[in-house]
Amino acid sequence: MGIVKKYLKSKPVCKVTFTVPAEEAKKVAVVGDFNNWNPKGSSLKKLKNGTFKGTLDLPKENTYEFRYLVDGNYVNEAEADRYQWNDYAGAENAVLDV
């Protein structure tokens, strides 16, 4: 898995690219604070090599909790900036600082 952050000089936005290796998966989405944990509109595209990839524009100077939704199962990003316990989920969420 991986995250690449690209800050834009012209806008207060960070382009965040999420990459998830999941050859066997049918659907992968990234869900979090930035989209009210709704997988609609945040699906990642499956590439020929079996990884899923997608880019979201997120406002800078914010912190977001997020997880991947892989075929209905929540998965954390191994390369997250940090992790934070979430009582609602009963698990740790990955945290992204932009």
UniProtKB/TrEMBL annotation:
Residue span(s) of domain CBM20: 8-98
MF-aspect GO terms: hydrolase activity; starch binding
Entry-linked Pfam families: AMPK1_CBM
Keyword annotations of the record: Hydrolase
InterPro entries reported for this sequence: AMPK1_CBM, CBM20, Ig-like_fold, Ig_E-set
Upper classification of the organism: Bacteria, Pseudomonadati, Bacteroidota, Flavobacteriia, Flavobacteriales
Domain of life from the UniProt record: Bacteria
The organism of origin for this protein: Maribacter luteus
Protein name per Swiss-Prot or TrEMBL: Glycoside hydrolase
Matches recorded under SUPFAM superfamilies: E set domains (SSF81296)
